[in-house]
Each structure stands twice: as structure tokens, then as C-alpha cells.
Amino acid sequence: MMLIVTPVALFAGIVTAFNEALGAFGRVKEVLSLPTEHDPAEPAGDQSLDRGAGRAFEFRGAGFVYPGSAEGEWALRGVDLAVPTGGVTAIVGPSGAGKSTLFGLMERFYDLAEGELRFFGRNVDTLPRDRVRAHLAYVEQDAPALAGTVRENLLLGRHDADDAACIEALRRSNLLFLAERPADLLDLEIGENGILLSGGERQRLAIARALLSDADVLLLDEATSNLDSNNEHSLQKAIDEAGRDRTVVVIAHRLATVRHAGNIIVVEDGRVVGQGDHPVLMRSNALYRELVERQQLDPVG
Ligand code: ATP
User: Which residues cross the membrane (predicted)?
Assistant: First the structure.
């Protein structure tokens, strides 16, 4: 039998392979282990998002307990926070503070136990989960990449992106230096799981993929592993670039990459203990100051 491979089938094949590659990563396992989702029966009525709401996400009096945790073991409690539309919002705090949990709630993997989460002005309980997720691009730590070329990896973000759009996304993600000519970069083979790139470059390739997609909101979990200062600077620039035309939320492990963020949220023990920009938090927030001092950053920014 002759097999005709259409571009769409080919793309679907790439996506399947990519999903299989993703399968090795914790979050997918975490999601698969969740109880079956109860999506609110396709909520009736107006589901339009309010782009003028000025807030991509807003938590109001939010509390959350992980499924299977003891009653009263709050992972988050009494959380009020806003992620303004556009620009960069950073979430910082010690290990176990609740940063990833906030992402899991934004991605609609879980429901709140109390309070409310709004997405572009709408209570998420009135929106199908997929509808929220369709607006999000998630770039994880140790972002996965496929064996193949840079172009093939980018087209996962938008399968009909032309070379000019791919090159622009690579420019914004500070990856153009990888080849002498941008056109050569698109054909560069990056090896099994992108092994020929550094961890920082793989994460920026994932940012480039997200920039090509339609997602309004980019959720980025910055890698905990050490980046050299070039990669750190490149990541900071890529985050700022992404914030120019969409909303970026970053879990920041290195404060240097986000100290210019317009909005920094400080979490500790499942609570928000500060929100503001770097100078405001340096003046007003003891935990933030401590985190900055621990990383030996220039306190002035
Ligand atoms: P890190 O910087 O180490 O990634 P974090 O700030 O992202 O930490 P979370 O992972 O959100 O913190 O964890 C918040 C709290 O929820 C912690 O007490 C953690 O032990 C708990 N927790 C996280 N994931 C689960 C889970 N799947 N089941 C039960 N409890 C969890």
C-alpha cells in the first residue's frame, strides 16, 4: 500500500513525536495522575474574554489543597494577586512557597478550594479548561527539543510559519549567534533531544516557539540550573522581548533575570507577602531583600 504523507500528517507526526518526548517530563506524569477532570459542563452563555480587563489573571481570596493532601494542608491560602495584561510578571520565593502551584492553577490543572480565579476578567469556572489553555504557552525548565532542525522545532509553535517569521522569533530569543547566517540556522541539526544546544539555548528555543504561536500568555519556569552570565543575560532579554507583545509570567529562580520586571510577586508558605517592582520591594519587603542578598545581586538593580 502506498502511503501518502501530507504536510498536515507530517506535522501531526512531529507533534506526536514531540508529545512522546514530552512524556518523559514530570508535569505530564503529574497531569496524568490527576483524577479525571470535571470540566464545567460546557458553560452556557457568553464566554468572551474581556481584553480590556487589564488583567490576564487575578486570584481573589484563593485557597488550594492538593488532591490527596490532608484536610487543612493548604498549598495556597488567602492569595490575592493580579497579573496585568502585557509585560513581565515574575513570581519569586523560597522552595516550596507555592510558585509552581500558582502555575498549575493558571493552567487549569486544578480547581481552587476557595476564592476565585479570573482569566481576562472571567471567572475560570465559567470557561472550559481547554479554552483557557488555548491562550497559554508553557515553557518549562529543561525545555524539551526534538531531534531535527531548528526550523522543525520552531514549526511546532506554528506549523505554517515562514522562514522570515522563524528568524524573527530566533532574533527575539537571542539565538541568531548560533550560525553565521540566519538561513543556515534554520537548517541546523540540534541532535537527539536538542543535545547540541546548551540548556539555556534549548529554553530560548522553546521561547522562540512560543513567540511564533498565538498564545497571549507565556508561562515560563526558569531553569534552576546555573546559567553562565551570557546565557543569563540572553534569557533576560528574551523574556523582556516576549513581554513586548504578550503577557509573560516567569517563575524566577535567579532574580537577576527579572529585576527589571514591572511586577514581581513574592510568595512564602502559600501566601503572597509582597507585590511591586524591584525598587519598591527592596524598600518594603524583607524576604525579597534577603533573596536578593543571598544571590549577591546589586541591590540597586
Ligand atoms: P520550588 O521552587 O522548589 O519548585 P515552589 O515554590 O514551586 O517550590 P510548590 O511546588 O508550588 O512550591 O509547592 C507548594 C506546596 O505544595 C509545598 O508545600 C509542596 O510540598 C506542596 N506540593 C507541591 N506539589 C504537590 C503535589 N503534587 N501533591 C501534594 N503537595 C504538593
Answer: 1-18
pLDDT classification of 47: cutoffs 50, 70, 90:
low
From the CB of 48, is ligand 1 less than 6 Å away?
Answer: no
Which residue's C-alpha comes closest to atom 31 of ligand 1? 66
Confirm whether the ipTM is greater than 0.95. yes
C-alpha 286/C-alpha 257 separation (Å) is 20
pLDDT at 216 over 50: yes
Distance CA 252, CA 103 (A): 12
> CA dist 15 to 20, 35, 196, 220, Å?
8, 25, 21, 20
Gap between the Cα atoms of 44 and 146, Å rounded:
40
Ligand 1 close to Cβ of residue 104 (< 6 A)? no
- Which of 140, 152, 222, 241 is the catalytic position? 222
Per-residue model confidence (pLDDT) at position 249:
97
Q: Which of 59, 66, 102, 142 to probe ligand 1 with, by most ligand atoms within 8 A of CB?
A: 66
Annotated catalytic residue 222: yes
63 vs 102, 161, 206, 250, CA distance in Å? 10, 41, 31, 21
pLDDT at 6: 42
